[in-house]
Each structure stands twice: as C-alpha cells, then as structure tokens.
Amino acid sequence: MTLQDQPAYIIRMRAKPGLGDKLFELATIGMTKSGASDRFIIAREDDDPDTLWNIEVFKSDAAKALYENSPLADELRDEIIDLLAEPPMRIAVHPYSALPLKEHV
User: Fold this and answer.
1) Is the C or the N end of the chain the one with fewer CB within 10 Å?
2) Where are the domains of the chain?
3) What is the reported pTM?
4) What is the DSSP letter of 103?
5) What is the CATH T-level fold of the domain 3-95, as seen in this structure?
C-alpha cells in the first residue's frame, strides 16, 4: 500500500473558551492509543489556542474502520463533543505527499 492509498482526515475542532488544553489532551490520547494511524499532526492555532487542527493518516481502510467503531473512539468522541463550542469540521482526504523536506534538497 502506498501513502496515496491510505485514508486520512483533516479535522478542525474549536473548544469552548478555556477548554483547549483538555481537547488537545484527549485528541492526542486517541491518536497514540488507537494504533490505527500511520502518522498524524495535531496543531494549535496561534491566534486561537482553543482551536485544534488534526491531520491523521490511517494505516489502511480496515484500520480506520476498526478504530472508528471501537469503544475507545466512542468514549473519546463523547468526551470531545462535550468540550466543543461548535460542531467539528472533518474532511476525508488521501495524502499526496508526506516526505521529510530534507529528502527534497
């Protein structure tokens, strides 16, 4: 399987004021505990520290489906939804490139 065959998401979530740290903690737990991701980036907006951007690349369609239907995902989803100021934005994508920059120099 190539990187371009792997399913991925770009997700934007905005926590209620002051709950950004908890949102980032739960999102990081989900990425590291699930084992479904091949790689991920969790970023915080400079101008809005309660806004999280997550780019998650799954190992495979099967790994993505297994995680999305797992008790861990259900538990984290409920906790995360309670922290949000608005519905999350989630866009399904497939990576085009994810090479370290030093390989292109």
Assistant:
1) C
2) 3-95
3) 0.82
4) G
5) Alpha-Beta Plaits (3.30.70)
Nearest residue to 40 (alpha-carbon basis) of 51, 50, 30, 25: 30
Spatial distance between the Cα atoms of 55 and 42, rounded to a whole number of angstroms: 7
For 90, list phi and psi in degrees, rounded to 5. Answer: -135, 125
Q: Render pLDDT for 17-51 as a digit per residue (tens, 0 to 9).
A: 999 999 999 988 877 777 788 888 999 999 999 99
User: What digits encode the pLDDT tens for the residues 41-94?
Assistant: 999 999 999 999 999 898 899 988 988 898 988 888 889 999 999 999 999 999
Cα 70 vs. chain centroid, distance in angstroms? 16
Instruction: Give the DSSP letter string of 76-88.
Output: HHHHHHHHBSS--
Which amino acid, residue 56?
Answer: E
| Cα(77)–Cα(90) distance, integer angstroms | 13
Question: With contact defined as beta carbons under 8 Å apart, do 50 and 10 qualify?
Answer: no
